[in-house]
Design goal:
Blueprint: H1 2-7, H2 38-41, H3 47-50, E1 69-70, E2 92-93, H4 96-115, H5 118-123, H6 127-139, H7 146-154, H8 160-166, E3 170-177, E4 180-186, E5 192-200, E6 203-206, E7 212-213
Parallel strand pairs: 1-3
Antiparallel strand pairs: 2-3, 3-4, 4-5, 5-6, 5-7
Helix pairs in contact: 6-7
Length: 215
């Protein structure tokens, strides 16, 4: 399960980010005000600076999205009797403030992606994921380059009718070990997911494009 969750950082397709509607690869005092951005930790270009080559900025301000919820409760609630609980038992349970920060980063990523705000979505991603997206973009024969352009290319249009479900995050646990972590959360229809998180410059970043379902 640990291996499967790590591979999610390379992409994959789920019918929604953290739910059953879109494909892949949140607002606390630290995460909402500090965008790491693309290009290995450099601040992302603003929409006016990007143009179409970098994926531009979306016009989905009116796309309905769901509010973030952080119910907490720890990973024990997600344990599966007789199942693989390697993620649920990974490292140690984080404190409440770290859980809230990680959940805010993930929710912000999903909302930005649903709205087509590619530069902002990239600013929530861990450096390793950005690097992978940039490598894919550099190999593309046509289209824009960089994290934003590749993320836009990998994300199918999201109908407004399903955008709210696509951004549902109710975080219950953050398991951490050093600078690595797994955020366990409920998506649409109460499906439980785990997603890689990475601690970079004292802020939690999203380490995959989609969560791995645990239930």
């Amino acid at each position: 399960m640990l291996s499967a969750a790590a591979l999610a950082a390379c992409g994959g397709s789920d019918s929604s980010p953290g739910s059953s509607s879109t494909g892949g690869t949140e607002a606390s005092p630290r995460s909402s005000g500090e965008d790491a951005g693309e290009n290995h930790g450099k601040p992302p270009k603003k929409p006016s600076e990007q143009g179409t080559e970098d994926g531009g900025s979306g016009s989905g301000a009116n796309v309905p999205t769901s509010p973030l919820e952080v119910s907490g409760g720890g990973s024990a609630q997600f344990r599966v009797k007789g199942g693989d609980n390697s993620i649920q038992d990974f490292g140690e349970e984080s404190n409440e403030s770290e859980l809230e920060e990680a959940a805010a980063a993930l929710h912000d990523f999903y909302v930005a992606r649903a709205r087509g705000e590619w530069w902002r979505a990239c600013s929530k991603l861990a450096g390793a994921v950005i690097e992978q997206l940039e490598q894919l973009a550099s190999q593309a024969k046509s289209g824009g380059k960089g994290c934003a352009a590749m993320l836009a290319a990998l994300t199918p249009p999201l109908p407004p009718s399903v955008a709210r479900e696509a951004t549902i995050v109710d975080a219950g646990s953050l398991r951490t070990e050093g600078e690595r972590g797994f955020l366990l959360y409920r998506g649409a229809e109460e499906t439980v997911y785990a997603i890689n998180m990475a601690l970079e410059d004292d802020s939690w970043k999203v380490g995959a494009l989609a969560g791995v379902p645990l239930s």
